[in-house]
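Worked Example 4.2. Consider the chain below.
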Amino acid sequence: MFKSHEKFHSVNGHRLVLIVDDEAINREMLGMMLADDYELIYAADGIEALNKVREYRELLSVILLDLMMPGMNGLELLSRFKEDPEVSNIPVIVMTSDQDAEVECLSLGAVDFIPKPYPKSEVVRARVLRTIELSEDRQIISSTERDPLTGLYNRDYFYRYAEQYDIYHRDTEMDAIVIDINHFRMINERFGNAYGDEVLKKIASGILDLVAESGGIVCRRSADTFMVYCPHGRDYRKLFEDASEKLASDETTGRNVRLRMGVYENADKSLDIERRFDRAKMAADRVRGSFARPIGVYDISMHEKELYNEQLIDGFARAIAEEQFTVYYQPKFDVRGDIPFLASAEALVRWMHPEHGMISPGIFIPLFENNGLIQQLDHYVWRMAARQIRDWKDRLGFSVPVSVNMSRIDMYDPDLIRTLSSILEEMGLEPSEFLLEITESAYTQDSGQIIDTVSELRSMGFRIEMDDFGTGYSSLNMISSLPIDALKLDMQFIRNAFREGSNTKMIEIIIDIADYLDVPVIAEGVETEEQMLRLREMGCDIVQGYFFSRPVPAAEYEIFLKDRTDV
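Applying the procedure from the previous section yields the following structure tokens:
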């Protein structure tokens, strides 16, 4: 959309100038004045000029335009240029003896005038050079502050102009709006990047049209995210529907495109601009994937959740230092025989917060996964679990394996092997005593690297359990090539299978897959004796769930160790 400075010159290194005049003598005179410094092309009337401009629009540095011509005159040409975004940025110097026409020419986009009869050649050259330099400077600035695909402000300049807008509109209530495209990555993959680019340009154009009435500014924040800062009071549902309708009406880019919007109404101006749009983005993310609710509005509940999350994040370092995180253990029982016996346990983290009491891992684990703190928490849990295994070995004379969870970020850590080895060496443990649980979804993302890492871990003696199986949607071909030592059925999968009116056929299929792979099946979330017996009948090997025990502190779990019958 914007010409870069590399295109300001023609092929021979000179800037390209178009001289438009129906009088041959005038074209010749101007040509003599400018020939030493510029490459020149000529047009004798408006139609020819229009064609030349369209042909050379990527190279033209300036147009010298006579107003009085037969057919299409200079004013008509100016009007055509102004309406065409492909050529409207090419500066035009009008040549005229009619001073009364100057105001109209300026309103149509002319940037300077050369009077007739022509002044001295050095004056003409100076005006042409000054016009070109100002235009080039303006376009360089524009290319810096604008997204080259859509022509919207980029994020940095958008924030800067939003701050300036506030300075000049201190008493105006403003709204921060974020517009996202649902599953834009899939649109690119299915229809190609060129199609995706057209979608983005169409959306940008539509948003600009919609905010033009009430004022405001628009930017493209990232690949498929747009931001709008505008005065409060718009009907956002209508704005959203209009944008969606305009997109859908375009046959080339309307298919398979769904938008979602997040609105932070009457934004708090004491917050910095970026924070205001973070709140709008939070509202947009809240309705991700919802067909019924495409618009999310930031409200007090989200604000309270945001404050609560910030407290948790701020308190993380202290919680690690003070060992506020406690490791609980949930036993896993081998049920293949008549009498179930303790096979292992899963280490699960709990947070006893000094102000908020016991915090559910369902709250803080997703939070830490999103901001990267989960890796530090994982390392903490690994070390605490290893220390506890060492303590049980020293006091009871034996150990039962404990499994620990590994987040996706752990699998990409180049120091993972060294970290695990260091913990085991420090505690004097063998890899066989330390089971590793890796979610199925981790395998399906960048599976090549994950498989290489897991293979190395197994070669060291670690046993790998694929956690949450049934939620990551691995292909059968992929499963057959994965380096795993056990399949662990997702808790919700078990609950759904045993719900009234459901059936366990899918579990039987998965157990058959595990038999084919020659690995045991672990079922978590087992709550009743009926479920346990039915799973054993189907061929399930190990059971974990409230039927045997909820996750318990180390001291309570130790009772299971002492009662173990196959020591």
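The CA atoms of residues 468 and 546 lie 17 Å apart. The two ends are 75 Å apart (CA to CA). Compare this with Example 4.1 before moving on.
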